[in-house]
Amino acid sequence: MHRNLLILVGLVVFLAVWAAACPQPEKADEAGNWMRLRESSRGCYHSEERLRFWTRQADRFVSEDTPVVLSASQVSHLRQLIRNSSRGRSHFAEEMQLTPQALLEHQPEILQSVSLTELPPSLAGYLDYSKFLESAKTLAFESSSYRTQTEFKLEIDGEPRLSVEFKGGWEMGFPWLVSSGDEQWETCSLAMIDGLSSLSDSHRRTHEIFRSPVQWRTFWDKEPIVGYNLWRDFKVASQELQAREALQTAPSYDLLSRTLQLESVKSWPVTDNGGGAYYNFSAITPQNLDLFTWSNPAGHLPCEPFEIYRQARSEVGRHPWLGRWRQGAPGRHLKLSMEANRPLEKDFSSLQPWERSGLPGHPEFQIDLLENGNHFARVYLSHATDLGLMTYRINDFSYWPSRPAVVLVNPIGEETKIRAVKGSPKKEY
Predict the structure, then answer these.
(1) Closest by alpha carbon to 335, among 363, 376, 296?
(2) For residues 209 and 223, what is the distance between their CA atoms, to the nearest angstrom?
(3) What average pLDDT does this structure show over 180-202?
(4) Which of 19, 39, 403, 427 is the most exposed place for a label (fewest CB within 10 A)?
(5) Per-residue model confidence as pLDDT tens digits over 377-409
(6) Which pLDDT belongs to residue 425?
(7) Residues near 210 by Cβ (< 8 Å), separated by ≥ 6?
(8) pLDDT score recorded for residue 144
(9) Domain locations in the chain as residue ranges
(10) What residues does 49 pair with on adjacent strands?
(11) CA–CA dist 250, 279 (Å, integer)
(12) Paired strand residues for 417
């Protein structure tokens, strides 16, 4: 009797231990009884907000605010996507497939986007994986929009109660903040974001926050590589390298390098009209025209800069007052600024006041008078006249030609006003 009882107790204990050790079937994620979605978007010229509320009726979720109807199984699936979303920003690279292997495999496409076939050693650091990933995270998590700020918050009833929200500029795309009962975490889950996008109205501005995750998903496609801001530093560096190489092929480079020192090269973005570079030079030996900025569009070999500089230096020599002004105080410079494919006779901002003043010919050289790095005045000179056309208001002269104080200056520095704005200060040399 006692023996049978012991056997029975042992069997009960065994079954209890075995049942505890066996995997338990997952409890179905209950859909709850309601869902609430709040979306808002605010920018310079718009402000919109929308609130939608779904209630459960049998096995469907319906709303008076939208014709979108969801089944209970769809809501349960959405809850699972939210609860199973990756936790933390560390999963970003895995979610977006931004792996070292993927970077290496797509390197030929990256090089092709900047017209290179091989990676120059000087640019290798820009495609280092750690720097690449750091730049990608900065773009995804810290980019912001001064134009539009968007909010998206979804709350789902059930056990546990869930909420997921995003706040920020649409360029960011990440992270999303998930709350599940007492737990809270950031996520980059594309699967979850896909599920949420089906609830947003694609015809409204608030839907723009789903644009960035879609672009990240197609990151390794050819077109996004060409246009993505992530490659900005690499593209700029490669364009500047190619611009330096182009300068060295110019016929006048030997003469140029003996007279001027190349201080820097700054490229501007490639667009439908092509890109280009600004070459910033300084004179090797002391002279009045001591700075030179040469703007050279892509496709135009800079073969004329030395001759342009030589002619401009000769022209400045015909106006002694410029030399006296430069030597009158420390920190003063005369800078020649020219564009390879845009002569000044085609520049409306300089040609219009030149013609208004009755000067012969057309402006040939643009000379900026700099004082401690700030613009003091701008002068246009030409071989056709001994007079110079000068404006004191550089910005106004560029954008509002009818407003600035413009004067004619003879070689010894005497001014004749053509048009003056009331209250403009008198300048003397």
Answers:
(1) 376
(2) 20
(3) 88
(4) 19
(5) 889 999 999 999 888 754 444 433 444 467 888
(6) 39
(7) 193, 196, 197, 200
(8) 61
(9) 34-217, 234-419
(10) 40
(11) 13
(12) 407
Higher local confidence (pLDDT), 207 or 338:
338
3-state SS, residue 221: coil
Place of tokens 């092709």: 112
Tokens of 262: 């190349």
Report DSSP letters for 151-172, one per residue.
EEEEEE-SSS-EEEEEEE-TTT
Provide the token pair at 348.
């409306």
Beta-sheet strand order (sheet of 47-57): 70-71, 60-62, 47-57, 34-43, 148-156, 162-168, 176-180, 183-187
Q: Record the tokens describing residue 370, joined without a space.
A: 């700099």
Q: Can you read off the two tokens belonging to residue 196?
A: 């949420």
H runs (alpha helix) in 125-279: 129-142, 190-197, 211-217, 222-227, 232-248, 253-259
**Could you tell me where the DSSP H helices lie in 368-427?**
394-399
Euclidean distance between the first and the last CA atom of the chain, given in angstroms as a whole number: 124
- Displacement of CA 25 from its chain's centroid (Å): 50
Average pLDDT, the chain: 78
355: Cβ contacts below 8 Å, ≥ 6 apart: none
225 touches 110 (CB < 8 A)? yes
pTM of the predicted model over 0.85: no
